[in-house]
Amino acid sequence: MNSMMKEYDLLAKYLEEMIKDGCQLVHGGNLMDWSDTVIPKILGKINKSKKNIQNLHNLELGDQLKHKISGQSMTVVRIDEETIYLNPNETPIKYPLNHISEEFEMLCKN
């Protein structure tokens, strides 16, 4: 995790502690409840992302993954120190046309 991510993680932790401790928000002289802001929702998304990252760092053979862009399902078939090997679960591969150049290059054209 890079230093900026560590700082964001620390900020999220402090905000969660403030909510848990009952800290109050004041805006324009008026008290606000945390639930009147998007902060709890954002913290929930952060926690969900952290859990997903932790799960992806603890992969085991047979685990199922889904590509975020194409939606293609893959199975973990081998893991070594620096590489993970995935087999597609279905033969057809579906990619959005506007993202194809980000992941593929042309070898030859018929």
Oligomer: single chain
| Biggest sheet features | 3 strands, antiparallel
Indicate how many domains the architecture comprises: 2
Low-confidence stretches: none
Approximate helicity band: 25-40%
Radius of gyration: 21 Å
Strand order of the largest sheet: 3-4-5
Residue share in β-strands: 15-25%
Shape: elongated
**Number of alpha- plus pi-helical segments:** 3
Question: How many distinct beta strands?
Answer: 5
**Roughly what is the average pLDDT, rounded to an integer?**
84
Q: What is the string of SSEs from the N terminus onward?
A: HEEHEEEH
Question: How far do the termini sit from each other?
Answer: 44 Å
Which structural class should the secondary elements be placed in? alpha+beta
Would you write up a description of this structure?
The structure is a single chain. The chain is α+β, with helices and mostly antiparallel strands. The chain has two domains: 1-58; 62-110, no CATH class. 36% of the residues lie in helices and 19% in strands. It is built from three helices and five strands, in the order H-E-E-H-E-E-E-H. The strands form two sheets. Strands 3-4-5 form a three-stranded antiparallel β-sheet, with no helix packed on it. It has a two-stranded antiparallel ribbon with strand order 1-2. A hairpin with a 6-residue loop joins strand 3 and strand 4 (73-79). Helix 1 packs across helix 2. The relative contact order is 0.08.
